[in-house]
């Protein structure tokens, strides 16, 4: 069978484009980008698959699921009419005081609706499903920051499914929704002005505490959508505050990342205080242990984020996995397809995406490859992308060619570190010697 996924190397040694440029310029650039892809925004919820949803899927036809979906739809219409009315009021020469009163009233009504119907007042949530944690898991802390349009109910479903998937307790930092359009506006402000909302500051406190806790050996941060922007802001702060050996305990995994950059600078691996009298270059590694990004090819939020910026040199650090498919919902469109749960709430050993064959430029084994958090001493530092290849028409069964079901072929699952965490597993950590 011809390969279905191609592995390529992204050059990350060059100077990045200035994402720290003028905030107004960045905001204008993002507005133009949103206008360009505005036609695809309804695709956030597609495909609906209403007859195939599980109880944890966002679009499951439960009372809370229907209430969340209907409320978001009404808020979208309400916000669109509100935004369109503002220039009309200016054109009609409505007094400024009346316009101000109108804006305050409209925003207050939107806030009250979101807080009482969608969000609730609890900022930090914890997974509530029963799991059998391993003894080593006591040394780990797992956090999740959700994306746009997620109320309290959907975030709880997200962390519960993550808990089933990886066999660990998950702490969720709720990025409260203000409705799809207002969430999108908030994303643009966060990207352009590095604006830290309350959930960003709360996430920073929790991650900082976990990394400084001497009993914790690993901190895992899972991000979705706008959560990628907020997680990126937190990481930028942590890079300024914490020593390298603590930062290296952090692992980051994103889905449908909406951020315009993701930092992971190179650091020297020589222990503090050690003097090197040799002429050789010291070993180096990335500050953060591991970063992986997962995206759908037809996900409009990924178009505005990770898929838009990943190919800019040194802009988006981490290995990128791109699945042929659409949709932006965390459970229904990402986890269900990439980490499919069986009826026993354990991840199946096989699914269409993870079984896709990978084309590499050289015949090297996974074991011989340096880990995403470790680098050799070459002058050119690179990152990797796994992107779908046009199908060749060969007969497939569950996404795999019937005549190519051997176990010697490199597949997506062989490159995914997150895959090794499924069902409570723990991958080995690469060490620099």
From TrEMBL:
InterPro entries reported in the protein's UniProt record: AB_hydrolase_fold
Domain of life: Eukaryota
Presence of the UniProt keyword Nuclease in the record: no
Keywords: Membrane, Transmembrane, Transmembrane helix
Biological process annotations from GO: antibiotic biosynthetic process; monocarboxylic acid biosynthetic process
Transmembrane regions listed in the UniProt entry: 21-41, 61-84, 96-118
UniProt KW Transmembrane helix keyword: yes
SUPFAM superfamilies named among the record's database cross-references: alpha/beta-Hydrolases
Record protein name field: Uncharacterized protein
Naturally occurring in which organism (per UniProt): Penicillium daleae
């Amino acid at each position: 069978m011809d390969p279905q996924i191609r592995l390529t190397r992204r050059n990350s040694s060059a100077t990045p484009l200035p994402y720290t440029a003028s905030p107004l310029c960045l905001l204008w650039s993002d507005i133009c980008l949103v206008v360009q892809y505005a036609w695809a925004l309804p695709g956030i919820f597609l495909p609906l698959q209403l007859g195939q949803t599980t109880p944890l899927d966002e679009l499951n036809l439960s009372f809370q699921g229907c209430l969340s979906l209907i409320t978001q739809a009404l808020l979208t219409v309400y916000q669109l009419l509100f935004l369109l009315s503002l220039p009309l009021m200016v054109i009609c020469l409505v007094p400024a005081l009346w316009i101000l009163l109108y804006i305050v009233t409209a925003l207050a009504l939107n806030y009250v609706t979101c807080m009482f119907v969608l969000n609730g007042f609890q900022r930090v949530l914890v997974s509530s499903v029963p799991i059998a944690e391993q003894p080593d898991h006591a040394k780990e802390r797992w956090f999740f920051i959700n994306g746009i349009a997620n109320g309290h109910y959907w975030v709880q479903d997200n962390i519960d499914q993550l808990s089933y998937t990886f066999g660990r307790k998950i702490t969720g930092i709720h990025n409260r929704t203000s409705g799809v359009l207002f969430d999108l506006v908030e994303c643009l402000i966060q990207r352009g002005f590095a604006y830290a909302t309350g959930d960003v500051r709360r996430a920073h406190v929790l991650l900082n505490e976990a990394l400084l806790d001497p009993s914790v050996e690993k901190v895992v941060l899972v991000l979705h959508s706008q959560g990628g922007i907020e997680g990126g802001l937190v990481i930028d702060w942590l890079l300024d505050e914490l020593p390298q050996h603590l930062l290296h305990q952090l692992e980051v995994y994103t889905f449908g990342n909406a951020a315009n950059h993701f930092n992971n600078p190179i650091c020297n691996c020589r222990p503090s205080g050690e003097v090197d009298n040799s002429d050789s270059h010291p070993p180096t590694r990335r500050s953060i242990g591991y970063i992986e990004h997962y995206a759908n090819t037809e996900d409009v939020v990924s178009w505005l984020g990770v898929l838009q910026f990943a190919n800019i040199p040194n802009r988006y650090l981490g290995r990128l996995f791109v699945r042929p498919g659409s949709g932006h919902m965390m459970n229904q469109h990402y986890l269900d397809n990439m980490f499919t749960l069986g009826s026993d709430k354990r991840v199946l050993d096989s699914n269409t995406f993870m079984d896709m064959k990978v084309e590499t430029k050289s015949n090297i084994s996974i074991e011989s490859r340096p880990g995403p958090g470790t680098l050799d001493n070459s002058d050119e530092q690179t990152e990797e992308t796994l992107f779908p290849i046009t199908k060749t028409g060969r007969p497939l069964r569950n996404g795999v060619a019937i005549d190519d079901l051997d176990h010697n072929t490199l597949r997506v699952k062989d490159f995914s570190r997150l895959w090794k965490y499924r069902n409570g597993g723990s991958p080995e950590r690469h060490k620099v010697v």
